[in-house]
Design a protein that fits this description.
Layout (H helix, E strand, L loop, with lengths): L13 H17 L10 E6 L5 H12 L3 E6 H4 L7 H11 L2 E5 L3 H11 L3 E3 L7 H15 L6 E5 L4 H13 L2 E5 L8 H14 L2 E4 L3 H5 L4 E4 L11 H7 L7 H4 L7 E4 L11 H4 L6 H20 L5
Parallel strand pairs: 1-2, 1-3, 3-4, 5-6, 5-8, 6-7, 8-9
Helix pairs in contact: 1-6, 1-13, 2-13, 4-5, 6-7, 6-13, 7-8
Amino acid sequence: MFGRDLLSIADLSPDELERILQTALSLKRDGGGASLLAGKTLAMVFEKPSLRTRVSFDVAMQELGGHAVYLSQAEVGLGQREPVADVARVLARYVDVIAARTYEHQTLLELARHAGVPVINALSDEEHPCQALADLLTVLEHCGTLRGVRLAYVGDGFNVAASLAEAAALAGVSLALASPAGYSLPEGTLRLVDRLASENGGRIDVCASPAEAVAGADVVYTDVWTSMGQEDSYAERKEAFAGYTVSAELMARAKPTAIFMHDLPAHRGDEVTEDVIEGGQSVVFDQAENRLHAQKAILALVASETAL
């Protein structure tokens, strides 16, 4: 994977997905890799604010022996103060890898087209592959396997759901999706993940209700109803998502051993109740920690010449 971009989970083969997860497990367990990226620099180009993504990438580079530089939209002005292509070509003269957190996925594609160094999608309006890799790592740790696991996603079919569905399909997970009308995954994404699932022993089901999706699930996952940039539609979305809150009653429809997941930040009382996210089935902070380990694996694989 050396020198490769990671813009979408669909860029990966099943074997590459497995390699990232196993590398993350190894780095997490053994604490190795301290010199893998010695002398390397990561540029973090962020149009959106971040807690987990920014800190985990920064710490990941430090733990791999490298260095990270944070660049906000106010400093760079992607596509405004300076054309995206020019930013990409300048950064490629200074750094070894770029992690970009953008509003439009097209911005990432343009960065990758002109950079000449690996570009990692740290979130766009279409995909969040780093989150999906951390999610699968968490499921693997708690369930002991991925193949055949039943995962229920309840909520907005936005970027997190898209990457989660692609990752689940590649890994042979059985995924049940429940979203209100008008908020499901795009048809093109559904066709893609259905094909990937059929090729890799998984299954994708679009369910009529959260109760149907969660029934018998090993994992119950939700996300915010209103993402960054959508704040003006909060009232409309809250009405549309009525009945989609993951409550103790909904969790009771899953297996007794089921875990609850959320990529954070969470809006308690909207997509999840306080007792669920703070309850014994919640693994949301394991999931947040795994952003660090998954991203260490990605960085090591795309930016280190050393075979892992």
